[in-house]
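quick one, 207 residues, struct below
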Amino acid sequence: MNLSAHFTLKSNGKFPKVPACKFNRPQASGSIVTLGRMANDGRSTILRGNSLALGGPELKAGDTAPDFEVVDPNLQPVTLKDTGNKVRIFSVVPSLDTPVCDAQTKRFEDAAGQLDGIDIYTISMDLPFAQKRFAGTFGVDRVKMLSDHRTGSFGERYGTLIKDLRIESRAIFVIDEKNKIRHVEYVKEVADHPNYDAALAAAKSAA
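---
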């Protein structure tokens, strides 16, 4: 399936092109899962009316937040432990270069200034260069960007991986100081917005 057929890109040539880069995929170690090792368990999401298989488990409030390994805009590895021990919102999006993902990230950026003791992360399969460019262009500096492009371990551990397209499904996770999940939303239609108010209320309650 061609992703561009389902999303309307918003850049309109606005951003400079990023030179192609070749990465050597690192081998995951310990508890980190690499892309393709976790079987689908029959879960699915919908993209513009098309059903797509989801990899990984369906997490619920009360579950312990799984570990993962992603990279930040400076290509440094980040695990669950590295996100600290504050209340955290993981805002998961398919691509920052699409309208709803753009709006979702900016919505949490606006909210972040009024949230004490709460850290917010946007997680996607976008390359770190694209995430850094997006943040710089739109002044996003309170929401932290994390890329799952190397191993897909976040998507596999949190049940957001659309393996056929190699993107994340839209979802929200609120994690408390003890790494317990306090709120989960898997947005059934990828093109729809999540329930921002519910996620923010859960984060405030956990803080």
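The mean pLDDT is 86.
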